[in-house]
Design a protein that fits this description.
Layout (H helix, E strand, L loop, with lengths): L15 H18 L3 E13 L2 E4 L15 E2 L1 E4 L3 E4 L5 E3 L2 H12 L4 E2 L7 E2 L2 E15 L5 E14 L6 H4 L4 H26 L18
Antiparallel strand pairs: 1-2, 1-6, 1-9, 2-3, 4-5, 7-8, 9-10
C-alpha cells in the first residue's frame, strides 16, 4: 500500500507502479522467449469514495467529471475471493499502457482543494494487475498439454488521514474526510488483529473486522 505522499506513477523518477510493471513485462519476455508459455496482463483501476466503489476505467461520456454513475457492488466468492461486479479490465502490452490507463482514470478520480493540499485525493485508489499464463508441456508419451495459472496483485494508493481543524473541511469535504479517517482507522485495526491472531491458536483467534469498511 502507498500513502498519499507517495507518487505512485513517479515524478522525476519512476514510481512504484511503473517499476512493478517493468519487472512483470521483463519476466514475461523472458518466459515467452522459451516458446512454451504465453502471458496476458490485464489492468483494473477503481476508487473507494465515501465507502462506495467505482470503476475509474468504465466507459463514460467524454464530458463526465465524476464517477457517480458507475458505483459497483463488492462481493465475495467462496473460491475466488473478493471481486467487484461489472468491473472493467483492459489488456495491457507494456508499462506505457499501464501508465496511460491510470492517467485516464485519474481524470475522473475524486480530488479537491483544501487548506492543506491544492489537489487532495478524496478517495482511496486500487490498481489491480491480473496475470494469466498458458504453458505448453510435452508429456512422457510425446503429447502436448496446455495448462494455465493466474495471479493477481493489488497496489493501493491511500488517501491521507485528515485533521479537519487544519484542512478546514466543510460540507461535502467534511463528509469525505470523515469516511477517509474511518476507513484508515479500520485498516489499522485489521492489521493489528491479523498480527495478534498470527500468534494464537485457531480457537483463540479474534474475528477480524474486514467488512467494517469498504476500504
Amino acid at each position: 500500500m502507498m500513502g498519499a505522499d507517495v507518487n505512485a506513477l513517479g515524478g522525476e523518477g519512476a514510481g512504484v507502479i511503473p517499476r512493478v510493471c517493468e519487472e512483470i513485462f521483463l519476466r514475461k519476455c523472458m518466459a515467452e522467449a522459451e516458446g512454451r508459455s504465453r502471458w496476458t496482463l490485464e489492468l483494473g483501476y477503481v476508487e473507494v469514495y465515501n465507502e462506495r466503489v467505482s470503476d475509474l476505467l468504465a466507459e463514460r461520456p467524454k464530458d463526465a467529471k465524476t464517477t457517480d454513475e458507475v458505483f459497483l457492488e463488492v462481493r465475495e466468492h467462496q473460491k475466488d475471493g473478493v471481486f467487484i461486479v461489472g468491473q472493467r479490465f483492459v489488456v495491457v502490452d507494456s508499462p506505457a499502457d499501464v501508465v496511460r490507463y491510470i492517467e485516464m482514470g485519474n481524470k475522473v478520480r475524486h480530488t479537491a482543494a483544501t487548506k492543506m493540499n491544492k489537489c487532495s485525493s478524496r478517495s482511496h485508489a486500487i490498481v489491480m494487475l491480473s496475470l494469466k499464463e498458458e504453458r505448453t508441456n510435452t508429456s512422457k508419451k510425446g503429447k502436448m498439454k496446455t495448462a494455465g495459472r493466474s495471479s493477481r496483485m493489488n497496489l493501493v494508493d491511500l488517501a491521507g488521514s485528515e485533521r479537519v481543524k487544519q484542512s478546514q473541511a466543510e460540507g461535502q469535504q467534511f463528509k469525505e474526510a470523515t469516511h477517509i479517517n474511518l476507513s484508515l482507522t479500520t485498516l489499522g485495526r485489521v492489521v493489528d488483529m491479523l498480527a495478534d491472531n498470527a500468534n494464537k491458536s485457531d480457537k483463540s483467534q479474534m474475528m477480524v473486522p474486514h467488512t467494517a469498511s469498504r476500504s
